[in-house]
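Hi W., the cobalamin complex you wanted:
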Amino acid sequence: MIISIKKEKALNVKKSTHNAKKWCLVHIGNDITYGLAFVAAELLKHKHKIMWLDGDDKIDELNKKIKDFSPDYVCFGPLSTEFKRSLELVDSFKKTLHSLKSVFGGKHVLSIPDEIKKNENIDYLVWGPVYETIDKIINSPPKTYIKGSPTFPHNMQPALKEYFEQVPRMGKRERKYIMSHFGCVYNCSFCCTSLTRQSYGPKAYTEYWLARRPIKNMIDEAKLFLKFYTKEVSFEDDDVLYDTHEGAEGTRWLKKFTELWKKEINLPMFANVTPQTVVNASNEALVALADLVETVQMGVQTTQGDSSRLFNRHFQDEAQVIEACKILTEHGIKVKLEVIVGLPNIDGLVPDPVTDSVRTIQMCQRISREVPSGMTWTSCFPLMLYPGTVLWKKCIKAGVPLSEACEFEWHSGEGSIKFDPLTMKRIKNMTKMATMFIKYDMSERWIRALIDVDLNDSSSKQLSESQYLESLKFRLGNKIEEEFDEILKGMNFKY
Ligand code: B12
Ligand code: SF4
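Structure:
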């Protein structure tokens, strides 16, 4: 008996004070629902039974699975883009199984809890981390609002095996994700990450969200990728070079991680960086990064004075982005630049959104010319205002009209700001063609002429698919084109 208690302690197994319950976890969309995999792990740790569903399957099939498994709870962790589908599903599931209780958590819930509370079919809302919430859910009456407690990253391990097996579309997804910590040091006005920092305070944020996980835990997580079809792994930290300036602890961590990744996993990887950390990173960290990844993604968004103030990114300018690109490419790392167009005119900062978007694209052309050809690639997003963010609040306050066509799907080119129809068309076309404008270094006249054309459904689809293929080729080489049709089949590609 004593041995088994010791064993349990060593395995960090927590016993629930309740009988095991049945929980259904609902995946939605084309990408790994990373946060929900941590919820799955917490449930398994408490000895509950789980079942994953692919929420994009036909509703009749899903209802049948709900009936057969008969769960006590159904869990959703939607981003804003997936919220509508979550509500459709929960409505239908509750009609199929009257005793079913729903639990909602994740970023969208965190951003606008008061709005979410109005939905009748939502029984429990979890605000923040899943930790220390499971027993509270079981013990509390419906319509309870529960705040989770943060835990140290060494206690956070996602349960992916059941997920990949039961949602084969995700098991077979060519790209998998991994994170070494779960926070971000910036405060972009279009992002909801800062809400967590505000709610738990900067000290807790640094301690829990910005501390890195033990490397062994990440390697254990990634060993599973080797058993499923995986072509590449996205190192999803917002900034993989965080804390790698001269003398900082991050350099040692990155070197060690790279060494073990190459030895034990060796799948192609790409990562996110910001210009600020690249220019300050130690050479050792850059050398390790170059060993780990072939490409990085760099959020440039915009670097023109006024529009970058709107985004709260005015600490970075074009010169810094160019310097960062040069440093990275000199280390042999290719750079994907990410920019945002379709900005609102608040406080007179962006009087002409089309000209602002042309200037942003021209900036990317200038940046690309500064480094050897083929070493950069640009992705252009329409501005999507996620509810609860600083910029969303600002737009509401300033009476900026919002577009109902925006479903937070960036391939669709539908942004949040409702301009006049001609401007809407031009912004949408810009997001669909910007990659090409930059790759082929087109002049302003060509750009302005092409964003004026009326795309039909087929051309719109082909342009978005071409951009997506371009991103895969940039990272994985031209050969991936042979598998592209197969990759598209596994996706519900929205364009
Ligand atoms: C990793 C990541 C991704 C990954 C995985 C996304 C996913 N669906 O899980 C990828 C690369 C696929 C991705 C894509 C996108 N992302 Co993203 N991404 C992130 C990132 C960097 C980290 C999120 C994360 O996994 N954290 C680690 C986990 C452990 O934390 P967590 O998700 O908060 O989960 C914890 C709790 O919230 C809670 N929890 C979560 N779900 C549930 C459910 C229940 C029932 C319970 C009880 C608890 C619970 O428990 C977890 C453990 O404590 C954040 C930025 C950031 N730094 O937070 C943006 C972020 C989540 N992404 C965002 C966006 C906008 C997107 C895209 C829409 C971008 C785009 N336009 O294409 C796409 C959407 C694709 C999709 N359909 O999933 C926004 C979301 C805004 C919003 N309100 O929706 C964020 C916040 C960044 C931002 N700009 O504001 N993203
Ligand atoms: S860098 Fe990314 S995660 Fe961090 S605040 Fe900006 S958009 Fe959000």
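The chain has two domains: 2-147, 172-489.

W.
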